[in-house]
Amino acid sequence: MKLGKLWLRIAAFGIALALQPSAGWASRAVGLTVTGEITASPSTLQVEVAHRVYHVKADSPAAKALRTFYLGQVVDLVFDRPALNTEPEVVSITPHSG
Description:
By secondary structure, the chain is of the alpha+beta class.
């Protein structure tokens, strides 16, 4: 086999590995997004948005940022994709822009 063809095959193999589904999944959104006004003061692992209480995932970016939000502020909540029999949990909370 010629050296040029070998390099072409190695390059094609490398591209095929880079195009696997896991490479694309790293940049996709996590789950459902909810936008609304905080209607109760956030606690350590819960936030009430539009009169509905949502559980915040422990040690997530949402849990770390939760204390920076206040009553009446409009926020965007992003949820994880739960296991079959569990409720989704908030993994990200950001101020709503728009």
